[in-house]
Amino acid sequence: MLTRWYQCNCKPGWMGKHCDFRGPELTCGSNNIIITFDRRAIAEEGMLTQNPSMVGFISRDSSHCIAMFEHSHNMSRYFLMIPKPIETSCGSTTQVTSQTYQIQNSVTWEVMDETIKSTVVLFDFTCIYEKNGTSSSEFSSNGILSIESYKRQTEVITSGGTFDINLSLFRDALF
């Protein structure tokens, strides 16, 4: 059970019970999506782990879908990256509108013992790629970390191309 006796309203870009560390960073790129966040974000919730394989995306269908743990002299953080194809890797889902492509996923904490597998959604995120060549990012506050502030980084890509599409129509699935 996660219990907080009080809650601070942090300045934008900061989080934690005492607003003493930076919120997660999300980089929406054309070749990958990168998320980094301070280890204290989950340690404050009692999920302290030195095992980075407990932190990952909603689907861990490859070794690329789990976190790496980075430790330097002044910071310990998790680093996660969704590789190409970003729209389907690691459980990502895509929504296409007339103006945007939205790639959504979640960062989770997962622990397994002999009989039970437990998964907790830490936070949801969305990378929004506009069809005119720009991108933006969003975090949802639905996870247990209640992330409301974060650092945004976007990679602006302007490109185009020519595509040939062949469609074949069949009467039923037997063809």
TrEMBL record:
Lineage of the organism: Eukaryota, Metazoa, Chordata, Tunicata, Ascidiacea
Keywords attached to this entry: Disulfide bond, EGF-like domain
Source organism (scientific name): Ciona intestinalis (Transparent sea squirt)
Positions of disulphide bridges: C10-C19
InterPro entries cross-referenced by the UniProt entry: EGF, ZP_dom
ZP domain mapped to chain residues: 27-175
EGF-like domain sequence ranges: 1-20
Protein name per the record: EGF-like domain-containing protein
PROSITE patterns per UniProt: EGF_1, EGF_2, EGF_3, ZP_2
